């Protein structure tokens, strides 16, 4: 990028730029590879794939996790696909039956007598590992063994998210879509909240002068080191969904605050859930929803409900609570949108080795009563972007924008996008970090350092 206000259009469709990302970004960056509850028991595994690299995330006997390159050391056969459990704690090659323990050490060579000692050195036969660390209920991997520690790479985003209790959250549902859109273009659509009025007008439930298009004080944007970014509530938005005590003209509508949450829940079943709305509606029977104190008391009622239900809850910290309804982007490809004891999470990856397609995963996660967490998280399925049975109105509206973005970015009239210094600084921040990584020199490292 030549400056922070323009992004060259070719970054979103150029094969050369995409190949540079494959070489310089993905093998050297920390990535969210799995939710911890995808692999609850020893021997459980899940495959993580990105730009042709397949990694097995495997739960060990001692509860730790290893990340193993998914290739037989004999003739490179892919060892496992999808998710499941390795029976007997053994990873068996489906081609010739060579086996490895779940820690990657070779345990059996079928037909060993036919091989010379030269090709069967133990260090050569062990499955190659990635760096792996856990944070926030997630498993993170890095193919580069010279990478900095995870929390250093995630600073300061991880520390901020820890304050809203993301480590206590577990998967409610998990779905994905394949979208005709570059992976960067797809996730940038969620770096800001000011598209809400045009894209999701049903969510715009609070009174406001029609001439005030953006409500400048409603959101606050921050670009962080390491390419991460955040938007959260601004000074005029004390609670998500509108200012407390906003006047409502329709006497039948008890509160814009409650109505917003009803629309949000029905539109995506994430961030605000049915149990939250039940708490708010219960309070409406005791306190006039038009009372200026209603929103604050509604949040207080949530904390009381969580305590009574045995739900580990976020700290009652006004600074942390400003993130409710906003989001944090974790470079390079993961977003979390926390709200109350819930979150909506996105992971976006290139798909099918094509710079114009992405694999877009969506999680609704929530905090369950202690001891009543779901046993294992599983992908519900892959669904078309216009599937009304599996996607609510809100994600369908977003998906339509993404595919239009990709079609428009290739117009001969477009050489670059133009960014707002106020609302879109986290987009330019991501691209600046991407540039830094693409310019890095990894050629001086000893062979094998990136994939021990």
From TrEMBL:
Coiled coil (UniProt feature): none
GO molecular function term, any single one: monooxygenase activity
Domain annotation Rieske: ranges: 30-141
Domain of life: Bacteria
Entry keyword set: 2Fe-2S, Iron, Iron-sulfur, Metal-binding, Oxidoreductase
Cofactor or coenzyme needed: Fe cation
Alphabetical list of Pfam families matching this protein: Rieske, Ring_hydroxyl_A
Record InterPro entries: Rieske_2Fe-2S, Rieske_2Fe-2S_sf, Ring_hydroxy_dOase_asu_C_dom, Rng_hydr_dOase-A
Oxidoreductase in keyword set: yes
Protein name: (2Fe-2S)-binding protein
């Amino acid at each position: 990028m030549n400056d922070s206000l323009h992004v060259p259009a070719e970054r979103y469709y150029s094969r050369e730029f995409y190949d540079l990302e494959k070489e310089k970004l993905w093998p050297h960056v920390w990535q969210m590879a799995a939710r911890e509850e995808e692999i609850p028991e020893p021997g459980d595994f899940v495959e993580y794939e990105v730009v042709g690299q397949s990694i097995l995330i495997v739960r060990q006997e001692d509860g730790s996790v290893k990340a193993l390159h998914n290739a037989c050391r004999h003739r490179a056969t892919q060892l496992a696909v999808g998710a499941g459990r390795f029976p007997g704690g053994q990873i068996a090659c489906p081609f010739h039956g060579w086996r490895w323990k779940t820690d990657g050490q070779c345990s059996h060579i079928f037909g060993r007598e036919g091989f010379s000692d030269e090709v069967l050195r133990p260090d050569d036969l062990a499955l190659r590992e990635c760096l792996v660390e856990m944070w926030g209920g997630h498993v993170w991997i890095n193919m580069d063994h010279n990478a900095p520690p995870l929390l250093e790479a995630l600073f300061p985003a991880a520390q901020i998210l820890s304050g809203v209790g993301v480590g206590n959250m577990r998967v409610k549902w998990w779905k994905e879509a394949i979208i005709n859109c570059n992976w960067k273009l797809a996730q940038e659509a969620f770096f800001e909240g000011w598209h809400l009025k045009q894209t999701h007008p049903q969510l715009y439930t609070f009174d406001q002068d029609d001439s005030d298009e953006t409500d400048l004080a409603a959101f606050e944007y921050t670009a962080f080191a390491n390419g991460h970014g955040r938007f959260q509530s601004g000074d005029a938005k004390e609670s998500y969904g509108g200012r407390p005590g906003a006047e409502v003209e329709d006497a039948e509508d008890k509160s814009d605050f409650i109505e917003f949450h009803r629309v949000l829940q029905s539109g995506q079943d994430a961030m605000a859930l049915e149990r939250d709305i039940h708490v708010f509606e219960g309070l409406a029977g005791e306190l006039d929803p038009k009372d200026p104190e209603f929103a604050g008391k509604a949040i207080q009622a949530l904390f009381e409900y969580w305590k009574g239900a045995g739900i580990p809850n976020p700290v009652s910290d006004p600074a942390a609570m400003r993130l409710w309804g906003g989001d944090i982007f974790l470079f390079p490809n993961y977003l979390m949108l926390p709200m109350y004891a819930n979150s909506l999470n996105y992971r976006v990856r290139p798909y099918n080795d094509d710079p114009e397609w992405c694999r877009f995963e969506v999680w609704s996660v929530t905090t369950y009563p202690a001891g009543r967490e779901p046993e294992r998280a599983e992908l519900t399925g892959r669904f078309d972007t216009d599937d009304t049975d599996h996607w609510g109105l809100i994600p369908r509206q977003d998906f339509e924008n993404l595919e239009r973005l990709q079609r428009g970015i290739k117009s001969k009239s477009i050489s670059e996008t133009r960014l707002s210094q106020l609302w879109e600084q986290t987009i330019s921040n991501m691209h600046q970090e991407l540039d830094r990584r693409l310019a890095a020199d990894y050629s001086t490292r000893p062979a094998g350092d990136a994939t021990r």
